[in-house]
């Protein structure tokens, strides 16, 4: 485990001027203007999409030189269905700069580490196989969550899952770096983030450790931000939340298709309350969080399949916007993954090989083809009926009892489930995740 960044406790300005380097900068040249224009366009796109609004988060993102935090990043040179082949681009190489400029300001996630490698001092070039083990999340999701945090000057902030350091930099800009702690399980990620944040003039405490345990040494915290998905709320993080504080984290199952956003708050009296909001996008799973995926071979079998059980149905499947229903389905009938690239509604259960494909063939008429031991179509409508009877909730209560049991419940109590550590059961069913990114009857209320 590494120690605190020596600069993390030094006296300094409350909020650093983020874009200013540590030495006097030369007058901007054409390249500097191009970078500033790309950053402005990225922020404008987030505003147009409704993910970003005027305020301190927008100001910080507009000022943040992403090329300083991510001077190297990976692009995939192989097709999605081919063995992965990655190329590491480097900002210092003129031939790479144009492509890297576009990548860093595309708004998409940016991969910065391959197979747990050291990040500082890497040689650019091609890597084959393996997977990306650290990244910067998509701009839209990052902006939206940071705004939900309601960061303010003087707050103490715990950023769990440092990645490229974007969240730590924004929190330092808004709150003042002396109150910011950023924590990552990988020392290579921590070392790189520390070096690059210092190059920006930011001095948060950069530490290495298990994010599920938080960092109590410098707590409690007014804001806690977790940048990876968890199967339930880590009790240590709740314990480190200060009165009046707020914590945000993606809560999900082994499926990447239907995430939820856990919002935890502690009242001034000390009582912790939480809710689970169905959202379209969420963070990817952290270390040890096995996630299901639909392989190319599985998807091809569904596309080419002839035979199986085909029936006509007048049951309308829930709309994509009914995220509260899909979130409930994910927990009540776990193991399902949606193929969002398919034209038809296509959902598979990779552990047992079951799948369903539903094609609209007329007004309230669907042709449903299914295969395998699970009747996924029936599972969908079972949960849809229970969800509608519960008032079609989009947000659920998240209750944690004295024994640590965590239960998700609709406001009226008609629809509920208990959170379990299903992602850590050692199923061995792992692989690339969806890009983010890379979403019986009960008594009526």
UniProtKB/TrEMBL annotation:
<comment type="similarity">
    <text>Belongs to the methyltransferase superfamily. L-isoaspartyl/D-aspartyl protein methyltransferase family.</text>
</comment>
<keyword id="KW-0963">Cytoplasm</keyword>
<keyword id="KW-0489">Methyltransferase</keyword>
<keyword id="KW-0808">Transferase</keyword>
<dbReference type="InterPro" id="IPR029063">
    <property type="entry name" value="SAM-dependent_MTases_sf"/>
</dbReference>
<protein>
    <recommendedName>
        <fullName>Protein-L-isoaspartate O-methyltransferase</fullName>
        <ecNumber>2.1.1.77</ecNumber>
    </recommendedName>
</protein>
<dbReference type="Pfam" id="PF01135">
    <property type="entry name" value="PCMT"/>
</dbReference>
<feature type="compositionally biased region" description="Basic and acidic residues">
    <location>
        <begin position="42"/>
        <end position="51"/>
    </location>
</feature>
<feature type="region of interest" description="Disordered">
    <location>
        <begin position="1"/>
        <end position="57"/>
    </location>
</feature>
<keyword id="KW-0949">S-adenosyl-L-methionine</keyword>
<dbReference type="GO" id="GO:0008168">
    <property type="term" value="F:methyltransferase activity"/>
</dbReference>
<dbReference type="GO" id="GO:0032259">
    <property type="term" value="P:methylation"/>
</dbReference>
<dbReference type="InterPro" id="IPR000682">
    <property type="entry name" value="PCMT"/>
</dbReference>
């Amino acid at each position: 485990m590494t120690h605190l960044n020596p600069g993390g406790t030094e006296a300094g300005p409350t909020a650093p001027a983020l874009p200013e380097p540590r030495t006097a900068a030369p007058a901007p040249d054409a390249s500097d203007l191009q970078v500033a224009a790309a950053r402005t366009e990225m922020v404008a796109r987030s505003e147009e999409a409704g993910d970003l609004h005027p305020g301190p988060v927008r100001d910080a993102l507009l000022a943040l030189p992403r090329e300083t935090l991510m001077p190297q990043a990976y692009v995939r040179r192989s097709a999605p269905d081919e063995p992965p082949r990655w190329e590491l681009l480097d900002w210092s190489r003129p031939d790479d700069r144009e492509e890297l400029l576009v990548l860093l300001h595309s708004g998409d996630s940016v991969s910065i580490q391959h197979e747990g490698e050291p990040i500082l001092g890497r040689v650019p070039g091609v890597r084959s196989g393996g997977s990306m083990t650290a990244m910067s999340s998509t701009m839209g999701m990052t902006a939206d969550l940071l705004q939900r945090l309601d960061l303010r000057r003087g707050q103490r902030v715990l950023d769990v899952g440092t990645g490229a350091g974007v969240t730590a930099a924004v929190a330092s800009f808004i709150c003042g770096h002396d109150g910011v702690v950023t924590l990552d399980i990988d020392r290579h990620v921590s070392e790189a983030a520390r070096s690059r944040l210092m190059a920006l003039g930011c001095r948060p405490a950069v530490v290495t450790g298990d994010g599920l345990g938080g960092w109590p040494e410098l707590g409690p915290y007014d804001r806690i931000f977790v940048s990876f998905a968890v199967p339930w709320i880590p009790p240590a993080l709740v314990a480190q939340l200060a009165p009046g504080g707020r914590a945000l984290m993606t809560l999900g199952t082994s499926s990447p298709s239907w995430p939820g956003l856990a919002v935890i708050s502690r009242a001034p009296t000390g009582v912790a309350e939480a809710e689970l909001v169905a959202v379209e996008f969420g963070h990817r799973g952290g270390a040890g969080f096995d996630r299901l995926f639909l392989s190319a071979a599985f998807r091809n079998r569904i596309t080419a399949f002839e035979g199986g059980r085909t029936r006509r149905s007048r049951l309308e499947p829930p709309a994509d916007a009914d995220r509260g229903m899909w979130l409930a389905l994910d927990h009540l009938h776990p193991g399902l993954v949606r193929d969002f690239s398919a034209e038809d509604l296509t959902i598979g259960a990779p552990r047992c090989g079951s799948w369903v494909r539903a094609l609209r063939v007329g007004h309230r008429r669907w042709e449903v083809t299914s295969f395998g031991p699970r009747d996924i179509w029936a599972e969908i409508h079972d949960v849809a009926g229970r969800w509608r009877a519960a008032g079609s909730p989009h947000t659920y209560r998240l209750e944690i009892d004295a024994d640590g049991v965590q239960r998700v419940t609709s406001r009226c109590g008609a629809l509920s489930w208990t959170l379990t550590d299903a992602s850590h059961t050692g199923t061995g069913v792992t692989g690339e995740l969806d890009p983010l990114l890379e979403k019986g009857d009960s008594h009526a209320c």
